[in-house]
Design a protein that fits this description.
Length: 100
């Protein structure tokens, strides 16, 4: 049984999401994670409002496919490494960020 971890960053779409699509074609089990890091904490009120609603909508859409989102807080490398060890992840997927 192969396990994939999909790290959500800025691309918070359920459909037309390259990382989710590739993971679902290549692996039997998928773990979806969103990390709240220091950059997230520095966002303004409007950005946090948008993020909250986007994550809520995405979470509902993914649940329809049996994919709950795991929310973690902290350093990305530390948290991703922990998840890889904990769930014996075979591959980690994420989408490229095109904005600075």
């Amino acid at each position: 049984m192969s396990v994939a971890l999909v790290w959500l960053r800025q691309d918070l779409r359920c459909f037309d999401n390259a990382a989710l699509a590739l993971a679902s074609r290549s692996h039997q089990d998928i773990i979806v994670v969103y990390l709240f890091d220091e950059e997230t904490r520095r966002k303004g009120a409007a950005q946090k409002w948008w993020l909250y609603h986007s994550l809520r909508d995405l979470s509902q859409a993914l649940l329809a496919f049996g994919l709950p989102i795991s929310f973690r807080s902290g350093d990305a490398l530390t948290e991703l490494s922990r998840l890889v060890r904990e769930f014996r992840v075979d591959a980690v997927y994420w989408n490229r960020c095109y904005e600075p």
